[in-house]
Design brief:
Distance between the termini: 11 Å
Shape: globular
Low-confidence stretches: none
Helix content: 55-70%
Bound molecules: magnesium ion
Oligomer: single chain
Largest sheet: 2 strands, antiparallel
Length: about 300
């Protein structure tokens, strides 16, 4: 891995956490007017700069990949359960449904299948928001990247669009890390991944959307639409993330996804210092230890030579 790719890999990890933290106070809020966009880390239910479940679950995936690469789904499921038992302040409904059954002793594949049967059309963004560590661990192996991106989704989000969305997101990161420009990276990822036509159409049309057309809900289609729109209609890390988190609604999750993409496109060096300095989060949960940007950089450097 050369220095340029390393800077982009670090940018992907730090960018995801920064997008999550910048979006945290805007979650469930309204779309903000173009002239009144939030550009600073602000406090809400958590202190300013705090990342949330999106980054926490990504850290769990990263730690699992550091132990076992390719991914061991049983190890990841058990680590998700340990995180869930530490009572995270945020946890998605679908995620919590599956993890509570695994915590009660059910094998992960049966647990998640039972939850999906209750809500067969449920296709939330909970596996796309945390998938980026699989892209970094497999930065030099597209086939392995796609397999583990799908597998990490299956543990909580088996819907075909959630699995395809995770593979697509990480394939975009794969091409961006190599220096492919964003528009081509999205096109190449659409070619490389088998994506249900309805989701592929949403991704293809995203850059032509107007800001006020973007719902930015917790539906995986809406999150990918916002993230691709943010990446392809701006030309800096800062602008991509600011535009997306200010859509409100599921702001932190869309922020995490566009942050991973834009971080991989522009690299760590392009991330504003004021955000870098503000980023924080207790990790592991309950430990009292506060993670900062340097810890994410160190984790990325451990993760990237996985193969
Ligand atoms: Mg969150």
């Amino acid at each position: 891995m050369n220095d340029l790719i390393r800077d982009r890999a670090r940018g992907c990890a730090v960018g995801a956490a920064i997008g999550d933290a910048l979006g945290m106070p805007l979650e469930f809020g309204p779309r903000r007017h173009a002239g009144r966009l939030v550009r600073e880390m602000t406090p809400a239910r958590l202190p300013a700069g705090s990342f949330t479940d999106d980054t926490e679950m990504a850290l769990v995936l990263a730690e699992s990949l550091l132990t076992q690469c390719p991914l061991d789904p049983v190890d990841l499921a058990q680590r998700f359960v340990a995180w869930y038992r530490a009572r995270p302040p945020d946890v998605g409904v679908h995620t919590s449904g599956g993890l509570s059954r695994i915590a009660a002793g059910e094998p992960w594949d049966q647990a998640v299948a039972a939850v999906q049967r209750q809500h067969p059309d449920s296709a939330g963004n909970g596996s796309v928001m945390r998938c980026w560590p699989a892209a970094l661990a497999h930065w030099n192996n597209l086939e392995g990247l796609l397999i583990d991106s799908r597998l990490q989704s299956w543990i909580t989000h088996p819907h075909v669009e959630c699995a395809a969305g995770s593979m697509f997101t990480n394939a975009v990161i794969y091409y961006l890390l190599r220096g492919v420009p964003p528009r081509e990276a999205v096109a190449q990822a659409l070619d490389a991944v088998e994506i249900p036509p309805a989701l592929a159409a949403v991704i293809q049309l995203a850059p032509a959307r107007r800001r006020d057309e973007l719902a930015n809900s917790g539906w995986v289609r809406h999150t990918l639409e916002s993230a691709v729109w943010g990446l392809l209609t701006t030309d800096s890390f800062e602008e991509a993330v600011v535009q997306v988190v200010n859509l409100g609604n599921d702001a932190d999750t869309a922020g995490a996804v566009v942050g991973a993409l834009a971080g991989a496109a522009y690299g760590l060096a392009a991330i504003p210092g004021r955000w870098w300095e503000a980023l924080r989060g207790e990790w592991p949960l309950g430990s009292g230890h506060i993670w900062r940007t340097d810890d994410l950089v160190a984790l990325t450097d451990q993760l990237t030579p996985c193969e």
